[in-house]
Amino acid sequence: MKNTVLASWAAFSISILAAADVALADDRFILATGRRDPRIYAIDFRAALKRHNNNTPNAIVSRSKVHPDRLDGVPVGDPANIVLSEDRRTAYVINHHGPVNNAEFLQHGGRGSVSVMNVRQMLDPASDNTDRAVERNYDSGYFGAVGLLVLPELLLVSHSENWLTEDGSNRISLIDRNTGGRRGQIEMALGHPGHACPSFPVPFVSPTPPPVVPFEAPDPQFGCWPNPEFLALGRGSDGKTYLFSGNAGTNDVSVMDLHQALAGVPVVEVAPRIPVQTGPFGIKASPSGKFIAVTARESGQVDFEGNTISIIDVDRARAGAPGAEAARVRVGTDDPNGQTRPFTVAWTPDGRQIIVANFRANNVSIVDLGLALAHDPRAEVARIAVVRPPEPDGSVLPGRPKGTAVTSDGRYAVVSGGPRLDPSAPPSGTVWVIDLHARAVVATVTGVGNDPYGLTILEDGPD
After folding, report:
1. What's the domain range around 409?
2. Residue 205 forms part of a structural domain
3. What is the per-residue pLDDT across 270-316, written as a single tens digit (0 to 9) for each?
4. How far is Cα 50 from Cα 157, in angstroms, rounded to an integer?
5. Do residues 336 and 380 make contact, with C-beta atoms less than 8 angstroms apart?
6. Is 25 helix (H, G, I), strand (E, B) or coil?
7. With 50 as the cut, is the pLDDT of residue 445 above it?
8. Checking CA distances to 276, which of 389, 392, 394, 400 falls within 20 to 30 Å?
9. Following DSSP, what letter does each residue of 193-209 receive, concatenated?
10. What CA–CA distance (Å, rounded) separates 299 from 228?
11. CATH number at residue 339
12. Has residue 209 been placed in a domain?
C-alpha cells in the first residue's frame, strides 16, 4: 500500500501540471464556505456579473449543509476551507471545530471534521438548505483543522490547535480519501521561544501527559507549538515535492519532505524554519511550484497584526540556504507601522502576480512577483478597496476580506469576506469579483454565510 500511495502521487504531480492548460468552458461557479453559517454557498459566476444582480444574493443557486442537523434540528459545522477533487466531482470541506453549533461553541480546540460533498448536488437548487450533497463526514485526525491538500489517495489536513485550546498543536494528518481513516500523522518540532516549553517528545512516545494549557492569543506563552495553518506544495529542482506550512505559533514556515511523509515517516522537516514578520495563515505555491507566498497575519504572543507577505524560494528553503525568504512585501498600507492583517493569497495562472486579502485594511493587494524579487518598493502594483453595501439602517460594515481565488484564465479574482456577526443573524457575508485587467470590483454578492473564509472556483463543471 505504501508503494501504491507513492506511485499515485508521482502520476498525480504530473497530471496537475497538464490540467493548467485546459481551456475554460462557460460554466463557472464559486463555492464559498459560510464558516459560522454551516453551509457551502454555490454562486453562479455569470449571474454574479450581471448588473441587475450586483449587491444582491440573486446569484446564489444553492446552499448545502456540511453536516446533517443535530437531533434537535440545530445546524452544525463551521466550514473554513474547501478544495475540489481532480475530477471536480467532489468537494472536500474542512470544518475547523467539526460538527459544532457556533452559537454554543465559543472557544478554540474543537475536533475538526472533513465533509465529503457531491458537487452536482451542491449546484442543484433542489438541494438548497439541505444536506443532500453530503456523502460522508470524516474525523480530521486532530483539533482545530484548517489547511487541506488533496492527493490521489490521501488528504493532508493541518491542525492549528489542541484540545479546547488555541495553542498546542504540531500535527498534520494524512487521511484516507476512501475510508476516512487516519493513515499517518506528521509531527513537527517544538519552537524555541524565550521561555520554557513543555516536555513533549517528538515523535510522540506513550505514555506522555497531554500538554494542554488553555492559552488564547495573544499570550506571551505562545511560541512552543508551531500550530500549522494552511499548507502548500513546492517543487524543488531536484525533482522532489516539498510540503510547506505556515506556523502561526512560531511565526515561521516549515519545509517538509512529502515523499518521506507518504512513506509513513512522522518527522519530515528537512531544513531550518524560515522566519516571517509574524504568525502566518494563508500560504500558496506558485503555478511552477518554485515559490511559496505566505501571509503574516497576526502574532500569538502580543497584540500585533502583520502587514507583509513573504515569498519563499523553494530550492533555497529545502537546502536551508540564506535568502530562502526571497522577498518581503508590505501590503494594504503605505504606513510601515500600519497593521493590515493579510489573510490569504492566490496566484494568477501565469505566476506573475499574487492576490492578497487584507482583512484589517479592507482591501485587496496585487503584488508583482518580478518586482518583489528585485526588492522594488513598488512591488504592490495595485490596491483595491472591497466595500459592502449599506445595512438596512444605513450603516456600512467593514469588508474584512479573507478568502481568495483566481479564475484559470487569469481574468478575475474572487474574494470572500465580512465581519463575524452573531450566529443567529441572517447570512451577512460578501463575495466580491475583481476584474484583474481593470483592477476594480465588478460584482458583489451579498448574503454569503457569516464570517466566510475559504472559497474555490469550479470551472467546466464535474467531469
Report:
1. 2-21+28-194+215-459
2. no
3. 999 999 999 999 999 999 999 999 999 999 999 999 999 999 999 99
4. 37
5. no
6. coil
7. yes
8. 400
9. -SS------SS--SS--
10. 13
11. 2.130.10.10
12. no
